[in-house]
Amino acid sequence: MDIAERLPFAALIARGLAPGVIACAVVGAASAFLSEHYGAPVMLFALLLGMAMNFLSGEGACKPGIEFTAKQVLRVGIALLGLRITAAQVVAVGWGPVLLVVICVVVTIVVSMIAARLLGFQVLFGLLTGGATAICGASAALALSAALPSHPMKDRATLFTVIGVSALSTTAMIVYPMLARAIGLDDRMAGLFLGATIHDVAQVVGAGYSLSNVAGDTATLVKLMRVAMLLPVIVVAAMMTRSSAKKGEGEGDAEGERPPLLPWFAVAFAVLVALNSTGYVPHAMQLVGNDVSRWCLVASIAGIGMKTQLKELATVGIKPVLLMLGETTFLAVLALALMRWLG
Prior knowledge:
Helix 10 packs antiparallel against helix 11 (201-211). The chain has helices at residues 3-6, 9-38, 42-52, 63-80, 87-92, 95-118, 123-136, 138-147, 154-182, 187-197, 201-211, 213-228, 230-247, 264-277, 283-306, 310-313, 318-342. It has 17 helices and no strands. By secondary structure, it is an all-alpha fold. It has one domain (16-342).
């Protein structure tokens, strides 16, 4: 009897996936080390190191594990984001900031989709970049990418979006606190502005607490409300994917199958938010969940980097760059206008 026939099915899967998963984990650990010592976003380091190791994604022992990490481990990380927020946190900041967040997210994504179409891209690319800008940066880009249909250019678009949103988020972390002080915002309003406009959670925290504890607390809570918007946006993305597959417009997956209305990781995200809102989840478990989520996302983006050829990113042109710059600027201007309107 062949040795493969004597091994349990699960062991065969683990044996095939282990090399690639370990490679992604090692790149993730190296990225975390560099991020802690040099202050740049860990996601950006994971992308760059992953692309440097892209030879591992060719035909070989690591390929299955890299594919698994870039897709399935990603979904686990997204689901665990639900342990970051509770309904009470959202209610605590009042309905004004909630309205601000909802309007900013919806309008920014809609404008991004229109702008993408005008620039000659697919509408779903505008949803991807607009969602990353409006919600929570690289995490939102990865979550939306997981909900969108398979496409030959999908990984490339996702990678470009993560790189762009990470770079813009780091720039905003430096520039926006100075802007808030220059236009005379008090600590609470400055925190509201920072939480509503900076892309990634880590950069929001850094920018907010660089001003004051009040600004930091407000910015973090507002940012978590933006993270909560991830679920309805994923639902919309899944509905658009199903609609495209049904109409046969070529934006569905390769087999033309219609994906589920609500991906399992979105359901898990909602369940964890609801569970976390009950107050029965121990703080230690929340911390573990957040750490596992962060590691899953870092490892998955390393896997996506390994699957991408650097020369492909050099051919994207100026239009995608202008799109993301425009989205970021639009979000900041919209937030300031709404803050004035809401008082």
